[in-house]
Amino acid sequence: MSALFIAAFGAIAFAVAWLLARRLAPRGAPAWACGACAAASFVISGVSPFSLGHSRPPSMSPTPSPTPVVIFGASRVQSLGVCASDVKPEPVPGKGSVDAVRISSGNQTVDRGDSPFVLSGERVVVSGWAAQNDLAAPAAGVCVLADGKLVRNASIVYGTDRPDVANAFHRANLDATGYEATIDAASLRHGRVTFTVVSIGRNGSRVNLVDGSRSVDVR
Length: 219
Hints:
This protein is α+β, with helices and mostly antiparallel strands. It contains 3 helices and 12 strands, in the order ααββββββββαββββ. The longest helix has 22 residues, at 3-24. The relative contact order is 0.17. It folds into 2 domains: 3-44, no CATH class; 76-218, Immunoglobulins (Immunoglobulin-like), CATH 2.60.40.10. α1 (3-24) crosses α2. The strands form 2 sheets. It has a 6-stranded antiparallel β-sheet, with no helix packed on it. Strands 4, 6, 7, 10, 11 and 12 form a 6-stranded mixed β-sheet that branches.
């Protein structure tokens, strides 16, 4: 829009405002009063004859950040942040269990019978299921403890299919409650190590030790 057009538009608008003010002003009011009324109408409307052609600065209000959304029940690699700090299980047992422990080397499972041991370079895989205490939904995730101490570097997948759990409790919403935690043997102390698992409530406020434990000799 050219400056000449803007100036013409401003002059016409001011003239219309002056005529309206003149018509509505008390009989005998001086012309300068009508001009003041016209100028006031510009100010009230938020337009100044001196600012025509200049856009208003954009609002400086910060755009709110989107709220993170966490989807539960889908098989996923659990965020390490869930088990980033020490966990203190509540005295009430959680719903779930530690079902099995196995040893893996590369992509292969190593069968070592009823008394498994793990060597450097191999991994311990702890698996089972966990849900909220009221069984209303899957948990937010799980954390693994080795001799009661949090294993911070465990790679955990939570939300795997457990149709046996859903059938046992007659609750279809408990199908995706399985977990599998993989721990490098190099991060464990040598000797007999016992693994337990805690379930994390969906609001993060409840931490409960699930049923069972499994032990492995670390060599």
